[in-house]
Write a structure and sequence with these properties.
heterodimer, A: alpha/beta, two-stranded parallel sheet, 5 helices, 26% helix, B: alpha+beta, Cytochrome-c3 Hydrogenase, chain B, 3-stranded antiparallel sheet, 17 helices, 12 strands
């Protein structure tokens, strides 16, 4: 089905550059060019063949050099679903990529895009009410970026004051201190574990 | 030239416009308000009793679940997902387990599938009973709440026996379930559901057929089919709008394919299709269907192990997946992105309550404040799931 969608998008939208990525494990996706996202979404919604009438969720995933925004589209009339994905390059680690909003196609996009902006830091053009949704409006940074650090103070209050951090309760807290030293401001240890690299090093040693 | 509030008004029409605007009164409903079912703040602008605009403000219960999930191993996340929808925690766990199992390719033993279905459906009944009781309170009737909670408490007792906790179970694990169910417990569950059908009919007669209740809910906050699709509504809200859509039927997971049950949709019996009364009725009828499913599971449960083969150190292969399951409040989806490590690279939760809250600004304009309370109650939100 992904291949059919990709062929359809390439035919319907000029320069869509739609590619189907089939997956061995889990689900595949269809990637499109970021500048043509709105056109592709519109074509999918209005096509008789696919009739993607529901936008279930928008999920932003942060990678070192890019942010992937996944639109989980579904057709409740034809009982199909798939992931439509755009890849937005990040020029600097703090950059906020821009993409067109799909609010005029699905009403659910309003809150979902606001959440993606709040958590991952993607700006949506033509959004009617572009604000943060879960964090306070004057919050700094985007929490679900992998390199996110909590700000020191907010409105004169100390964020994560030392004496309030429940060291005993966090079962992974020791791990964090060992790996990151005193950088408690990173909320949780959100990088790939070092043990994998250790394993690789060990494997190399045994080979040698 | 007239001057009002330091502003020069040259034309009389300007004056009227100014006056019209100042007539709107801004009210904050919540964050601590019994009718918002948790910590939801809705800023409403009212013209006397009629709402002109409603803006929900979320985030009061935001607990960074998605961020924490990036640093906890796959098994450790199960207790965290409990805390999203704390009134339907079994559904949350089940959805998460199904997602990871699909990535791992784990086969879940038949007995575990049966136990999951039993606890999942009991949870659905418990959750809908809570809706029934609390919705009646929202609309001014106190006693139905006490009847509903008596039955709900019996279900929570079963859960406590099985898992050790009343609300946050950590019972459905990746690959199976934590604890086996005894024959004695099965007998007691079947005894419990024996009379539940009759009880539920009485409950419905007490509230659903009540003239005042019908007056408060029929033709209120009508969600059309088109609107439900556009907002991505799922679960009882979507079915209340007359759409025959239930994941247990349309995309069966677990053993739902083998079970016989019906999907009820709103028919507009007391008003228009998709009003508050329809959503209420869908939930009540769903409880009867859950009882039907439970009977089949209790008859058909097989002997065997309750845990599939899962590696000790759980590493999910690289890739991504989006899986959804039918929870009491609607569809729950997990978008899991794995880089092959011990922890998820990203775990995004699609919460049905979040999408349902986004319907409020569209439903509120033109409603009376009292009807707005009925509207919030009828979409049955849990703020733990909205804010995560």
């Amino acid at each position: 089905m992904l291949n059919e969608i990709a062929t359809f998008l390439n035919g319907a939208v000029n320069g869509a550059e739609a590619n189907a990525h089939l997956a061995e494990v889990g689900h595949g996706c269809v990637t499109v060019d970021a500048s043509k996202l709105f056109g592709c979404a519109k074509a999918l919604k209005e096509s008789q063949e696919f009739d993607m009438n529901v936008l279930q969720v928008i999920s932003g995933v942060d990678f070192p050099e890019r942010i992937e925004v996944c639109y989980m589209l579904a057709s409740f009339t034809k009982n199909t679903e798939f992931i439509l994905k755009v890849k937005l390059p990040k020029t600097t680690p703090d950059a906020v990529p821009v993409i067109e909003s799909v609010c005029s196609l699905w009403l659910s996009a309003d809150f979902l895009e606001r959440e993606t902006y709040d958590m991952v830091g993607v700006r949506f053009l033509n959004h009617p009410d572009h604000r943060r949704i879960l964090c306070p409006e004057d919050w700094e940074g985007y929490p679900l970026r992998r390199d996110y650090k909590v700000q020191e103070t907010w409105n004169g209050l100390t964020v994560n004051p030392e004496e309030k951090v429940n060291n005993g309760d966090h079962f992974f807290f020791k791990d964090i201190i060992e790996k990151m030293g005193d950088e408690k401001k990173k909320v949780t240890f959100s990088w790939k574990g070092d043990d994998e690299e250790d394993e690789k090093a060990k494997a190399k040693e045994t080979q040698a | 030239m007239i001057e009002i509030n330091g502003k020069e008004i040259s034309d009389l029409t300007d004056l009227q416009d100014e006056k019209m605007k100042s007539d709107l009164l801004t009210l904050n409903m919540g964050p601590q308000h019994p009718a918002t079912h948790g910590v939801l703040r809705v800023e409403i602008k009212t013209d006397s009793e009629v709402i002109a605009e409603a803006k929900p403000y979320l985030g009061y219960l935001h607990r960074c679940f998605e961020k924490h999930a990036e640093s906890i191993d796959y098994r450790g996340i199960v207790p965290f997902v409990d805390r999203m929808d704390y009134l339907g925690a079994m559904g949350m766990e089940w959805g998460y387990a199904v997602t990871v199992e699909e990535m791992l390719g784990t086969e879940v033993p038949r007995r575990a599938q049966y136990i999951r279905t039993i606890v999942g459906e009991l949870q659905r009944i418990a959750s809908h009973l809570l809706f029934y009781g609390v919705y009646a309170i929202d609309l001014g009737a106190f006693s139905p709440f006490l009847y509903a909670f008596e039955e709900r408490e019996k279900i929570l007792r079963f859960f406590e026996e099985m898992s050790g906790a009343r609300l946050l179970y950590n019972y459905i694990w990746i690959g199976g379930v934590w604890n086996d169910i005894t024959d004695d417990q099965l007998v007691r569950i079947s005894k419990f559901i024996e009379n539940l059908d009759e009880e539920l009919k009485k409950f419905h007669a007490l509230v659903g057929e009540n003239k005042i209740f019908i007056g408060r809910t029929a033709n209120v906050a009508t969600v059309s089919e088109e609107m439900a699709y556009s907002f991505g509504a799922t679960g009882p809200v979507l079915r209340g709008s007359g759409v025959d859509w239930d994941l247990r039927k349309k995309r069966p997971y677990g053993i739902y394919e083998e079970l016989d049950f019906d999907v009820h949709v709103g028919k507009g019996e007391k008003g228009t299709v998709g009003d508050c009364w329809d959503r209420y009725q869908v939930r009540v009828l769903e409880m009867h269907e859950s009882i039907k499913i439970l009977r089949q599971c209790l008859d058909g449960i097989e002997e065997g192990s309750i845990m599939g083969k899962v590696p000790k150190v759980l590493k999910v292969p690289e890739g991504e997946i989006y899986m959804r399951t039918e929870c009491p409040r609607g569809e729950l989806g997990y978008h899991l992105v794995s880089d092959g490590g011990k922890t998820p690279y990203r775990l995004k939760v699609k919460s049905s309550c979040f999408t349902h809250v986004s319907m409020l600004p569209a439903l509120a304009p033109g409603q009376l404040i009292a009807d707005f309370v009925a509207t919030i109650g009828s979409i049955d939100i849990v703020l733990g799931e909205v804010d995560r």
